[in-house]
Amino acid sequence: MRFTRYGGPEVLSVVEVARPEPSAGQLLVEVVVASLNPAENAIRLGMFASGPAGFPQGMGHDFAGVVAALGPGVRGFAVGDEVVGFAPGAAMADFAVVDAGSAAPKPAGLGFAPAAVVPAAGATAWATVAAVAPEPGETVFVSAASGGVGVLAGQLARLAGARVVGSTSSGHARRLRGLGIEPVEYGRGLETRVRELVPDGPDAFIDTFGRGNVDLAIRLGVSPDRINTITDHAAVQRYGVRAKGNGDALSPTIWAELLDLIAAGRLVVPIEAEYPLDEIARAYTDVATRHGFGKRVVRVRPDPS
Ligand SMILES: NC(=O)c1ccc[n+]([C@@H]2O[C@H](COP(=O)([O-])OP(=O)(O)OC[C@H]3O[C@@H](n4cnc5c(N)ncnc54)[C@H](OP(=O)(O)O)[C@@H]3O)[C@@H](O)[C@H]2O)c1
Q: With contact defined as beta carbons under 8 Å apart, do 179 and 268 qualify?
């Protein structure tokens, strides 16, 4: 999957390229499922570009697949291993090359789709929960609790023993409740509804949506060091709240912890939709709606196991 200029989803196209070769310390992985992340829309639009672009660029970050070849000096992996990995700008492909240190074994029997989202959305959720360190019996609020990061963060906070209240559309309330997260409808009147559910205010606040959620947390009396946002950089400057995210959890050890929770059925990864590679424009258009329950992914090939 490549693009040669910045723009909307229409700039993406599937092209035939030579199979990449793994260098020393790298794995060549046959990709089965690649995750779709909102930031990839922003990257493709050029919103993160700070200088002249090097085109063509690839797409995607996190994926799950099967090791097809090893570069010199790789230890701990073998051809045929099922793995997850993090390959910025290279995951949406038949084959991806990844540093062995940016890959983790996928538990046998775990589907490739839920596994593929672990290195980005999963790790980000892990970092947000670690940042606010919920204690058993505390109440944690999660904004956009039905989103890709939010739905995982809410469940991880529950696993830490907290009561979790999360904002959602009414259409996703029942599914959220089924995951142990108390739904509260976002939009006009949110603050009143939160105060009714949590009269003393939450102990911690995980913001995965921005747009006034950190201001709400401050008004609810949450201490800035118990507020984490992954989107509202202005609020970080304004209030000194925390901003832990994906870059703080790019660790195969953390990914392995999350994969084990998913394989054990203790952490559920809702998959909103799977798309074939040649429907990538529709996939990213759907991601850009910012509505859905859980994650959207691209299926490159059927699960081999
Ligand atoms: N800093 C980092 O390391 C990092 C890492 C990953 C992601 N991010 C960023 O974090 C954000 C969340 O990522 P994501 O993958 O979780 O996004 P996402 O899956 O696209 O989130 C969509 C969710 O937002 C909800 N939503 C829509 N309007 C809302 C509103 N007004 N109030 C509350 N929720 C609303 C939707 O709920 P309904 O469907 O119920 O309407 C939907 O479930 C993105 O901006 C992303 O770029 C940052």
A: yes
Q: Is the CB of 3 under 6 A from ligand 1?
A: no
pLDDT score recorded for residue 6: 95
Compute the average pLDDT of residues 219-231.
98
Q: Which residue has the tokens 């559910």?
A: 197
Q: Whose CA is nearest to atom 14 of ligand 1?
A: 148
- Closest-lying ligand 1 atom to the alpha carbon of residue 190: 32
Closest CA to ligand 1's atom 21: 147
Among 22-31, 50-59, 263-272, the range scoring the smallest mean pLDDT is: 50-59
CA of 144 from ligand 1 middle (Å) equals 6
Q: Which two tokens stand for residue 144?
A: 């956009």
Higher pLDDT, 147 or 48: 147
For residue 168, the model assigns a pLDDT of 98
User: Hey, which of 175, 214, 291 would you mutate to test ligand 1's pocket, going by the most ligand atoms within 8 Å of its Cβ?
Assistant: 291
> What is the pLDDT at residue 53?
77
**All domains of the chain in start order, with CATH:** 2-117+269-299 (3.90.180.10), 121-247 (3.40.50.720)
Q: What does the pLDDT look like over 130-167, one tens digit per residue? A: 999 999 999 999 999 999 999 999 999 999 999 999 99
Q: Is 230 in the pocket of ligand 1 (CB under 6 A)?
A: yes
Ligand 1 pocket residue status of 57, Cβ below 6 Å: no
Would you say the CB of residue 213 lies under 6 angstroms from ligand 1?
A: no
Q: Pairing between strand 227-229 and 57-58? A: unpaired
